[in-house]
Structure formats: structure tokens, C-alpha cells
Amino acid sequence: MLRSMTTAATGMKAQQLNIDTIAHNLANVDTTGYKKTTAEFQDLLYEVVNPGGATRGSGLSNSSRVEVGHGVKLSATNRNFRQGALMQTANPLDLVIEGEGFFQLQLPDGTIGYTRDGSLKMDADRNVVTSAGYFMEPALQIPEDAIEISIARDGTVSVLLSGNDSTIQDIGRLELVRFPNPSGLRNRGGNIFLESPASGTPVLGVPGEDGLGEVSQGYLEMSNVETVDELIKMIAAQRAYELNAKTISIGDDMLQVVAQLKR
């Protein structure tokens, strides 16, 4: 079989994965805090047909190598953590991180998850939780007599209590974390990331300090997917897929010519 056919097959598989990545981005164009992913590729091993520097019978040596590649492979899916657009909601428990950092969540198995999705709620016990019911870390609980919630840019959470004196009480403080390599975080789904060896150890801090972003109340961070860019990449991937398929077709035509040769 011609080498070109198997090489083109790797190109078709690569572009299929590329389309899968683009489709996932487009599906999450309205997902709060979603960060788009880009597929990255590397060429495969090369077959050395003629090594450079080999001496021929005439005493002369080849000045260059003759190598033939064997295609392409998916090397990584890189997540882009560029800030998404901000949408005002006027909901006091909707939060956005302006800059670097992640909120911390307490997962059911005891591990800590990390998210950019700040659409928070109150459960039946007045605990501050995510839409999926995960507790914030550190935990926050809103008093029953609270009539107003205020969250400062440094993460300080205070409430206005009902009564004649209208007491303002601090009930806790949000903490953020950042990672040496956020692109190395493992995707859990549900807008949640998990620490991995590639991400490095999380660095805990106060919003607005040590390189961490500040918290804004009443806003949500939207997806950073640019629809037009994704559609352009989809068209380019489709054309690359078609060209690789055409290469296989041409290779098949060449084999038919060989099969029809007569002695």
C-alpha cells in the first residue's frame, strides 16, 4: 500500500478531532465561565530514505537528507483562559473574577474543585452553593434575618440584618486560587476543574492581592468563545479533511494503475 494513504488517514483523524473540539466550543458559547479549547498537532515519525553525509561510490557525499513523514497526531488540547465578556445580572449572589483566579468548591468526595462560574445560589439551609449544589470553600451561610447581601471587591461578605438598628455584619470572606499553569488543569465537567500534575500546586490568596483578580458582585463572566473565529476554523478543518480524503482517492487510483499493468 502507498505510504500516502496511511499518512492521509492520520490527517483525516486529526481534522475529525479538530472539528470535535470546535463543535464543543460552539456548544458552550453561552456557558457561564467556559474557556475555549484549541486542538494542537504534531507531525509523526520520519522515515529516512537517504541519510545526509553518506559517501557515494564517486567519493562525493550527500549534502542533505531525504526523509518522508508519516502524518500527524493530536498533541494537546490547550484551554484559553482569556477573560470572557461580563454580563450584568443585578443578582447579589452572581459573582465574577476580574482577572486571574478561581473560586473553590467542596466536592462530594472531599476534594476541592475550581471554577470561574460565579452563578451562586442559597440552599434550603441558606448555605451559598453552586447551581449543582456544591458548597463554596470556605463555606458561607447567610443569616435568616439578612435583608441585603454585599460582597466587596476583596471578597469580604457582609449582610444587612433586619431590625431597628439595621446592623451590618461580616459573615466571611471569599478566597481565590491561581495555578502556575492553568492550562494543565483537568476538566471535570459542570464548569469545574481539578488540580493535576501539569497544573502545579494551587496558590491561595485574597482577591486583589498576589496577582489574583478582584471580585465584582452582580455580574457573570460569559464564555470567551468567539463564534466567527470558530466558524472560520471549522471551514479550514473541513477543507483540510477533504484534501486528505482526496489524497487517499488519488493513492487508490495509482494502485489501480499498478494493478492493471501487464508483463
Description:
The chain has 263 residues and is α+β, with helices and mostly antiparallel strands. The chain folds into 2 domains: 114 residues, no CATH class; 136 residues, no CATH class. The protein is built from 2 helices and 20 strands. The strands form 8 sheets. Strands 7, 8, 11, 15 and 18 form a 5-stranded antiparallel sheet that branches. A hairpin with a 4-residue loop joins strand 12 and strand 13. The chain is elongated.
Order of helices and strands: HEEEEEEEEEEEEEEEEEEEEH
The helical percent reads: 10-25%
Count of structural domains: 2
The unreliable regions are none
- Shape descriptor reads elongated
- Report the β-strand fraction as a percent range: 25-35%
What is the mean predicted local confidence, pLDDT? 90
Number of strands: 20
End-to-end gap: 20 Å
Q: So how many helices? A: 2
Radius of gyration (CA) equals 27 Å
What structural class results from the helix and strand content?
alpha+beta
Largest sheet: 5 strands, antiparallel
Short descriptors:
263 residues; alpha+beta; 2 domains; 5-stranded antiparallel beta sheet; 3-stranded antiparallel beta sheet; 2 helices
Task: Give a brief outline of the structure.
22% of the residues lie in helices and 33% in strands. The protein has helices spanning 3-27, 227-259, and strands spanning 37-43, 46-50, 66-69, 72-79, 86-88, 95-98, 102-106, 112-115, 120-122, 128-130, 135-136, 146-151, 156-161, 168-173, 176-178, 186-189, 192-194, 203-205, 214-217, 219-221.
